[in-house]
Amino acid sequence: MKKITIAIDGFSSTGKSTVAKQLAKHLGYVYVDTGAMYRAVTYYAMQKGLINKEIFNTEALISDLPKITISFKFNEDKGFAEVYLNNENIEKQIRTLEVSSFVSQVAAVSQVRKKLVEQQQNMGKDKGVVMDGRDIGTVVFPDAELKLFMTASAETRAQRRYDELIERGDKIEYEAVLKNVQERDYIDSNRKDSPLVKADEAIKFDNSNMTLKEQFEEILKLVNQTISN
């Protein structure tokens, strides 16, 4: 069976990572969570005091990029690859709402995108990869055999994210999560470098009213059709 590249783009909290992990596991493909890579750089910037509600020292972050190494290591107990920043496991630290509130600003920095896009292209050069993010089908792998664009209402996505955070034990208000989702949508769609747009040939997939099982089954059909063509 031939291997393909599957590019899944879309807005935040549309379930891209969840279905991408399922697909990769089912197909025996490599899964790359590009959003986690941008979160890792954001976490680095936060730890170094380069970004907060008052300032964003982009020059210092750009200068520090050579010091930043992002890698993935498979956790057999959890069944997925966790994110490491300079050999430190930061999988839990990067999933907070605080990181979410700054990640779109960091991802808008051209030098950051250039560094991470090159790494992403290298990780998927042999095909057999499922990659999700904001610009996979338009910039990272414009020749991907299957491109999906995930969408859902802001309210639906905020509720999903809120439920995740509450399950983790975070204390947060739904309104704060909704505001974060809306702000990220605006920044992601309006940045100068690689804004979030649907690739011309991407299949739009609205999962507002779908269960995870329904979503996986529908997308798997598209994958099998693409592989058999």
From TrEMBL:
<keyword id="KW-0808">Transferase</keyword>
<keyword id="KW-0547">Nucleotide-binding</keyword>
<keyword id="KW-0418">Kinase</keyword>
<dbReference type="InterPro" id="IPR027417">
    <property type="entry name" value="P-loop_NTPase"/>
</dbReference>
<dbReference type="InterPro" id="IPR003136">
    <property type="entry name" value="Cytidylate_kin"/>
</dbReference>
<dbReference type="GO" id="GO:0005829">
    <property type="term" value="C:cytosol"/>
</dbReference>
<protein>
    <recommendedName>
        <fullName>Cytidylate kinase</fullName>
        <ecNumber>2.7.4.25</ecNumber>
    </recommendedName>
</protein>
<keyword id="KW-0963">Cytoplasm</keyword>
<dbReference type="GO" id="GO:0006220">
    <property type="term" value="P:pyrimidine nucleotide metabolic process"/>
</dbReference>
<dbReference type="GO" id="GO:0015949">
    <property type="term" value="P:nucleobase-containing small molecule interconversion"/>
</dbReference>
<comment type="similarity">
    <text>Belongs to the cytidylate kinase family. Type 1 subfamily.</text>
</comment>
<dbReference type="InterPro" id="IPR011994">
    <property type="entry name" value="Cytidylate_kinase_dom"/>
</dbReference>
<keyword id="KW-0067">ATP-binding</keyword>
<feature type="domain" description="Cytidylate kinase">
    <location>
        <begin position="6"/>
        <end position="225"/>
    </location>
</feature>
<dbReference type="GO" id="GO:0005524">
    <property type="term" value="F:ATP binding"/>
</dbReference>
<feature type="binding site">
    <location>
        <begin position="10"/>
        <end position="18"/>
    </location>
    <ligand>
        <name>ATP</name>
    </ligand>
</feature>
<dbReference type="GO" id="GO:0036431">
    <property type="term" value="F:dCMP kinase activity"/>
</dbReference>
<dbReference type="Pfam" id="PF02224">
    <property type="entry name" value="Cytidylate_kin"/>
</dbReference>
